[in-house]
Amino acid sequence: MRRRSYLSALAAGIPLSSLGSTGLSTAETQDTGSYLFEETFDELASALKPASDEYIDDSVRGWTHTPPEGWSVELAADMPQGTTEWQGWSFTTDAFWTAAAGQGRSEFTRADSVFAVADPDEWDDTDSPASEGTFDSTLVSKSIDLPDEASVYLGFASHYRQEDGQTADVVVSFDTGDEQTVLHYDGAADSDNGGDDVRNAYPVVEVSVPDGAQTMVVEWRLSNARNDWYWAIDVVRVASEPFDGGPKPGPDPIQLPDSPDGTSDEKVLVLGLDGVRWDKLRQANTPVFDRIREDGIGGPSQLYGPPLADSSSGPGWSTIATGVWPDKHGVTDNSFEGKQYDTYPDFLTLMERENPDLSTFAIMDWDPLSEQGTFSDAIDVKAPVESSLSWWDSGERIVATARDRLRNQNPDALFVYWVLVDMVGHTKSVGSDDYIEAIEQSDAWLGTLLDAIEARETRSEEDWLVVVTTDHGFEGFGHGGNTIQERTSFVYAIGDSISGQTPERQPEAVDIAHTALDHVGVTPAPGWDLDGIVLGTPSNDPFDDLKNQLKPAETVDIDSSVLGWTRTPPTGWSVGFASQMAERGTTEYRGWSFVSDEFWARRNLDGRQNFVRARDVVAVADPEKWNSGGNPIDDGFEFQTTLESSAFDVSGRETVSVEFRSHYRGTGGQIAQVFVSFDGGSQTERLRYDGSDDDTSSRTESLDVSVPAEASTMTVAWRLTASSADGFWAIDSPTIDAPQSSSE
After folding, report:
1. What's the predicted TM-score (pTM) here?
2. CA angle at residue 581 from 677 to 616, to 5 degrees?
3. What's the pLDDT at 250?
């Protein structure tokens, strides 16, 4: 059995779906004041404990024999000992019960958090007690006060499976000594169940009250059972007037073709929540997402903006689906003009191409994702949800369908998306209570789907990865622009093989496709030209060693909570600048500086936000921002700065390759140069940009360098000279394909 670490709140014994303020209703919600009595068993959550005989991870607290106050559980004197957890009526959770066994148990969707179960089928799985006797146990309610009425009505959520010989009875007794059997189930056609299963129902029966009766007690007895199925109940109610149990919780799943039976024990679910603004997510009550953050890996990150692409859904989901940035996939706004999905298909399509035996599934309620081919028809089952539904209703149908698919079928890779939060933002604004409510509803839906994974019959043999993300942020009633609120996204992953941690590298939207592919055993080919990495991949970028040295702004107008800059270079590297720059200009940009994307591209963007191939800490030479502190260039002081690498060992090499990510915006008075030198000798220019270079933004530069005979070390230098107060140069991830000298 693979031990689990992660996916739900099971360590506390509570299904994740019950932690949110709203969600797919798991029990009808009438005014509790209209009932004479109500019991949901949820107060037993703190009494739940780990498995005893069942093979369920001991971190999962999901059962108890302790009934609510005033209630009792009775066992027949001759009932043999079986599986401890199911020795008579027990109180459990959906995730625990369905982890013990499947066989239709997951269909009890009327049950809320904790419910009561009599399960002779599981009881008989330890030492076969049914070979010695039968299962016979009675659940007895507390005493219920009665009104001065001729009758009352008893209702309860019920999930019952019949087997030959098994008998179930609901008996009501009164303080007058009278007794009534109000329901009787057995294998006979004339019984109340017609001799068949009664699954996920809410029976309501009229109970005649004898003259003078002031209290009653209800008993649920399951008897004469051997290895014979089960009976579960929840949400017990008594009322003076007739009532019904309401509709089954949530909508029925959308009728779709069955998924092909999956072939992989490694499975992935990508959950797409459209238009969730990061700071509003943090403000909302999101217990499920909070657990994902604590137990998983990931974080917020900044996206592109115009002119590269709008911070909108078309570019956002295209980036997530394909694993490449907009300059490759071609979608720059919601028109989808220029899309390059044939060259850069979605990750589910890539899975199908590489391993057709994988079972893929996608469901979504924003039509363009299907119609435009963001997720292609190569996916085994693709389900666009009709847009005539309200966004709340379509979200519920999506979750119901995905839940059913996860619990009752065997897909390997899924993309599940709902547009609710985005649409509420457009109609009510990001500052509305409705926007927060939509986030909280989404959080409850996340819990429903994580619970569905936990309830799979084959869960213990599987390695699940769940990724949660959004496509863009929000500002006011919309998005698409360059504000930090619109451009901030997030990526979080949680799974069996992931422990809670702060990733070494900032997660990006393009990482999702690569991570999903890797998890199901598909290795991206170099020709796919993906931009992302597998989440959790360590950094080999020397600039990222400076993360812990980043500090708040000193002179620029950026909130002090943003730790985003330092002029201290990596060990062995150096930064020089012209003497005339000393004590002049903006402190943070006096020569090459090392900054985070959030810090550098928070103000005065001018394309800075579109260095999409940078990650974490970036080296920046920015004469425009330097000049904003007192206009030194206008006073005739030139900007000139050089960043020089540590020495790399090149002994015995004929050539080496220097590679780095570059983002350059030039002007007529600006020159950018790359030099190499050997053994401390003179520098030789290997690359030059000037104001005439237009196509030098967010690209990877690779320079093949010949190594002189007898040379032992090489250094690389990046120099920017500017006599005009415009432009910038940023570099990231410098690598040389020779090992760095151990003496440096």
Report:
1. 0.70
2. 65
3. 63
